[in-house]
TrEMBL record:
<dbReference type="InterPro" id="IPR015883">
    <property type="entry name" value="Glyco_hydro_20_cat"/>
</dbReference>
<feature type="domain" description="Beta-hexosaminidase bacterial type N-terminal">
    <location>
        <begin position="26"/>
        <end position="161"/>
    </location>
</feature>
<dbReference type="GO" id="GO:0016020">
    <property type="term" value="C:membrane"/>
</dbReference>
<protein>
    <recommendedName>
        <fullName>beta-N-acetylhexosaminidase</fullName>
        <ecNumber>3.2.1.52</ecNumber>
    </recommendedName>
</protein>
<dbReference type="GO" id="GO:0004563">
    <property type="term" value="F:beta-N-acetylhexosaminidase activity"/>
</dbReference>
<dbReference type="InterPro" id="IPR029018">
    <property type="entry name" value="Hex-like_dom2"/>
</dbReference>
<dbReference type="GO" id="GO:0005975">
    <property type="term" value="P:carbohydrate metabolic process"/>
</dbReference>
<dbReference type="InterPro" id="IPR025705">
    <property type="entry name" value="Beta_hexosaminidase_sua/sub"/>
</dbReference>
<keyword id="KW-0326">Glycosidase</keyword>
<feature type="active site" description="Proton donor">
    <location>
        <position position="327"/>
    </location>
</feature>
<dbReference type="Pfam" id="PF00728">
    <property type="entry name" value="Glyco_hydro_20"/>
</dbReference>
<dbReference type="Pfam" id="PF02838">
    <property type="entry name" value="Glyco_hydro_20b"/>
</dbReference>
<feature type="domain" description="Glycoside hydrolase family 20 catalytic">
    <location>
        <begin position="164"/>
        <end position="329"/>
    </location>
</feature>
<feature type="domain" description="Glycoside hydrolase family 20 catalytic">
    <location>
        <begin position="334"/>
        <end position="476"/>
    </location>
</feature>
<dbReference type="InterPro" id="IPR017853">
    <property type="entry name" value="GH"/>
</dbReference>
<keyword id="KW-0378">Hydrolase</keyword>
<dbReference type="InterPro" id="IPR015882">
    <property type="entry name" value="HEX_bac_N"/>
</dbReference>
């Protein structure tokens, strides 16, 4: 008997690895359900990623997993199409459309000592499952160079799907411009925590950041400034499409925002005819808000917006265009309302769905318009009264440009100081008594960049708050609690370090 036991051990079965507990893994967002069976799956160089034959999206998800695993493991894992479920010891990815509980983005991960099966009802779910696989491997998996590790994963079953359909983050590339590489890195951060929307704030008083071929001065003139007087910049349409594709590979839809009729100084400086007095304004590098407006009574303003919306719609496969609409303090309400109504029509005529900041609910909303609540609950109420859905971005909790406390080296504090616990410990469905679960499409955390000049600054404000917003959007509220989360978040420190993220070492977090 002893001999047999010894032989079994030598054969390299699960008994050679220490016991594991899948349900104790510090996953963020916390999954809907986890059962552990105590063994380990080893990712070895000879593992094949089998993908269900005949579906390009499944094959792409397989390639995405292979690319993610390559740098740290050095394993050039093969991705192979197959008709049948896989051979022992391998990874198998496939769809099961009949498993409707999983919805659009849910997945089931079945890990045993003899293989790993990832299934989803739709391809997006496979991408979400990959985010989980990543977190179940040692932190060294995040390295960009080959690391020495046994690459073990705890075994068991995870079934998981999101609470909210819209899980977004906003990056303001107008106050300060961030190059394509930085935006890709930001997208990587979102992908780690199962976000599915990136809202790009592409225009504001301080800069116009997207090439519009029919109005070239927007970028020839309007892109060349930013807060503090730096050189600014813009994305060519080709670069924008590259971002769209990069995000789409990670199940992230890009939502472009052109803010109007206020927050438009960069456009007003580029084209004199957009101003009521016909004179171009100066470029602006300060941080005041609410002083600019398109001349809502001029037809040319609508020609301009029509062209911008059409070009944006063509380069944006996602269904939304965000029209801003916030803080138009110098646009009289009697001009603001017809303006918003007309612009909404232009967006729907271009085949897109409108999103706007909560102020747009003062107008009659387009049939499927979505309102982004940030400050005024009365406005959200007006949207709900019109039967529309709301995205929750309460500035007091979800503004990542707010300082953590009064000593934070950058950030504003007009809405609140937002420490990591405050950022996490709220529920979209109860934070405003008048906004209930059924009214809510999802949540979005916003990073305004008046005080943010480079990727280190982005890191400092985004980490470690961002993972919490991911969890609020994804996990059922009865699975979430701050003290458990603080432990799990602390366990991500190694990952942040390996990724070279310049995070804020909040005293609230139980760092490992
Ligand atoms: C308010 S939030 C704004 C932005 C600023 C931000 C700074 C919103 C819709 N408007 O223009 O950048 O505060 O926190």
């Amino acid at each position: 008997i002893l001999l047999i036991a010894l032989l079994l051990g030598l054969a390299g079965c699960n008994s050679s690895y220490p016991p594991t507990d899948l349900s104790a893994e510090p996953l963020i967002p916390v999954p809907v359900s986890v059962t552990s069976d105590g063994n380990s799956f080893q990712l070895r160089h000879d593992v094949t990623i089998f993908v269900e034959e005949g579906n390009a999206d499944v094959a792409n998800a397989g390639e995405y997993l292979a690319r993610l695993l390559f740098p740290a493991t050095g394993f050039d894992l093969e991705v192979e199409a197959t008709k049948r479920s896989p051979v022992k010891g391998h990874i198998y990815m496939h769809l099961d459309p009949a498993d409707s509980e999983l919805g659009k983005e849910g997945y089931e991960l079945n890990i045993s000592d003899s293989g790993l099966e990832l299934k989803a009802a739709e391809p997006a779910g496979l991408i979400m499952g990959i985010a989980t696989i990543r977190q179940l491997l040692p932190s060294a998996i995040e390295s960009s160079s080959v690391q020495d590790s046994a690459w073990l994963m705890p075994t068991g079953v995870i079934r998981d799907y999101p609470e909210y359909a819209y899980r977004g983050a906003m990056l303001d590339v107008a106050r300060h411009f961030f190059p394509v590489e930085d935006v890709k890195r930001f997208i990587d951060y979102l992908a780690m925590y199962k976000f599915n929307r990136l809202h790009l704030h592409l225009s504001d008083d301080q800069g116009w950041r997207i090439e519009i071929k029919s109005w070239p001065k927007l970028t020839e003139i309007g892109s060349k400034s930013e807060v503090g007087g730096g050189e600014g910049g813009f994305y060519t349409q080709e670069e924008y499409r590259e971002l769209v594709a990069y995000a789409a590979q990670r199940n992230i839809m890009i939502i472009p925002e052109i803010d109007m009729p206020g927050h438009t100084n960069a456009a007003l400086a580029s084209y004199p005819e957009l101003n009521c007095d016909g004179r171009a304004t100066e470029l602006y590098t300060g941080i005041e808000v609410g002083f600019s407006t398109l001349c809502t009574k001029k037809e040319i303003v609508y020609d301009f917006i029509g062209d911008v919306v059409r070009e944006l719609a063509v380069m944006t496969p996602g269904k939304y265009i965000h029209i801003g609409g916030d803080e138009s303090h110098v646009t009289p309400m009697e001009d603001y309302i017809p303006f918003i109504e007309r612009v909404q029509k232009m967006v729907t005529d271009a085949g897109k769905t409108v999103i706007g900041w909560d102020e747009i609910a003062n107008a009659e909303l387009a049939p499927d318009a979505v309102v982004q609540y940030w400050a005024q609950a009365e406005n959200a109420q007006k949207a709900i009264d019109q039967g529309r859905k709301v995205i929750m971005s309460p500035a007091t909790h979800a503004y990542m440009d707010m300082q953590y406390d009064s000593t934070s080296r950058i950030g504003l504090h007009w809405a609140a100081y937002i420490e990591v616990d405050k950022a996490y410990d709220w529920d979209p469905a109860s934070i405003e008594p008048s906004i209930s679960r059924d009214d809510i499409l999802g949540i979005e955390a916003a990073l305004w960049t008046e005080t943010v000049t480079n990727i280190e600054d982005i890191d400092y404000l985004v980490f470690p708050r961002l993972p919490g917003y991911g969890e609020i959007g994804w996990s059922p509220s009865d699975k979430r609690n701050w003290s458990d989360y603080a432990r799990r978040l602390g366990a991500h420190q190694n990952r942040f370090d390996v990724l070279g993220i310049h995070y804020y070492q909040s005293p609230k977090v139980q760092w490992k």
